[in-house]
Design goal:
The protein folds into 2 domains: about 240 residues, 3-Layer(aba) Sandwich (Rossmann fold); about 35 residues. The C terminus is likely disordered. Helix content is about 30%, strand content about 20%. The protein is elongated, with a radius of gyration of 26 Å. It is built from 12 helices and 10 strands. The strands form 2 sheets. It has an 8-stranded mixed beta sheet. The chain has a two-stranded antiparallel ribbon with strand order 4-5. The chain is α/β, with parallel strands linked by helices. Helix 11 links the parallel strand 9 and strand 10. The longest helix has 14 residues.
């Protein structure tokens, strides 16, 4: 069976603009300075990605911070978050091999705070937290014309907000004094940053998981849906891509290989990491988009799930993680998946 290595690539015959973008860099990191496969490297992806050998990664699969307030991302402003993802995506252009892929698992930001959003009432016709009606408030006002709404609230045994809502129809999602929230579509941002880096949208899959009610906390005062899916956006580096249907069984091709929607149960217990995804998610991408022996990168390695999936599918891996507690967790999980594999103690990449 022919492999990509058997296909000659004559860069000199390519248009100059294409040739300059695809030809492997002559100054690729080599020897001790290059990040080695089979190791969890501790540090910031923005500092370590330039140390990966050029055109060496068959697939980069990762799930970055979602900007939803997790402890490991709570220090980021929205501008910081955008700069992080934009920079990391740009740094993939030289390290992906031509024809290789970048796959990003991410979700839209469902409660994105927007101070410019109009504070318009949400009037619920089917659910009232207080039995106090507008008629009750008007009757109390007639009986106690000297009272303000705080005093009326004590008489009616409700909140002053209830008085205001019954009189003026004010029922703001999140409360009168909170910044309103809306959905922030993340896919368009990724597309913009990938195109700027010379990577092209190739595909997207929808991962249907278990419902996450926390992200839809205002659903009783809106028509917003409960969050129960995420995306895997797949970007392609121009080059020869081997399409090998023998990587999957006929059943796998039918059930998920050629299907846009993947139904995979969420991780049941996030007791050692706040945001784990199931091994099956990267496993499918790895089986679909790489061949045995290829290098799979995860530069937001977290608990090590992508590396575990790569090992199970006979691929190599490079892991990058900046949180020390997750570096230790990933190394333990990888050691359990591949006894005898040295996943890295303190290395030159520790920062």
């Amino acid at each position: 069976m022919a492999t990509l290595e058997d296909i000659p690539v004559n860069y000199a015959r390519m248009p100059k603009g294409v040739r300059d973008r695809l030809q492997p860099a002559a100054a690729a990191p080599r020897g001790a300075d290059a990040l080695q496969p089979g190791v969890v490297h501790a540090g910031d992806a923005r500092r370590l990605l330039p140390r990966i050998a050029a055109a060496s990664i068959g697939l980069s699969f990762w799930s970055p911070p979602y900007f939803v307030g997790k402890s490991y991302e709570s220090h980021l402003t929205f501008s910081d978050w955008q700069d992080l993802l934009r920079t990391v995506i740009a740094l993939h252009a030289p390290i992906l091999r031509p024809g290789g892929f970048l796959a990003v698992n991410i979700a839209d930001i469902l409660c994105f705070r927007d101070p410019t959003m109009p504070r318009v009432q949400a009037h619920s016709l089917t659910r009232r937290r207080s039995p106090v009606t507008r008629a009750d408030v008007l009757r109390a006002m007639a009986d106690h014309p000297e009272m303000n709404r705080y005093a009326l609230a004590r008489v009616l045994e409700c909140s002053e907000q209830t008085i205001d809502r019954r009189l003026n129809g004010n029922n703001i999602r999140g409360g009168k004094y909170e910044t309103q929230t809306r959905v922030k579509i993340v896919g368009g941002l990724l597309e913009q940053w990938a195109l700027a880096a010379g990577l092209y949208p190739y595909d997207r899959r929808i991962w249907v998981k278990d419902p996450a009610w926390e992200n839809s906390k205002w659903h009783t005062l809106s028509y917003r849906a409960v969050d129960e899916f995420e995306y895997v956006y797949i970007f392609w580096k121009p080059g020869v891509t081997a399409v090998d249907r023998s990587r999957l069984t006929a059943r796998e091709w039918k059930e998920w290989g050629s299907r846009a929607v993947w139904t995979i149960p969420s991780v049941r217990a996030n007791d050692d990491h706040e945001a784990k995804f199931p091994v099956e998610l990267p496993r499918r991408a790895i089986r679909l988009l790489t061949a045995p022996g290829d290098i799979v990168l995860d530069c937001f390695l977290g608990s090590g799930t992508t590396a575990v999936a790569a090992i199970r599918e006979s691929r190599q891996f490079i892991g990058i993680e900046k949180e020390a507690r997750y570096v230790r967790l990933a190394r333990r999980r990888i050691a359990a998946a591949a006894p005898g594999l040295k996943t890295g103690g303190p290395t030159k990449s520790e920062i």
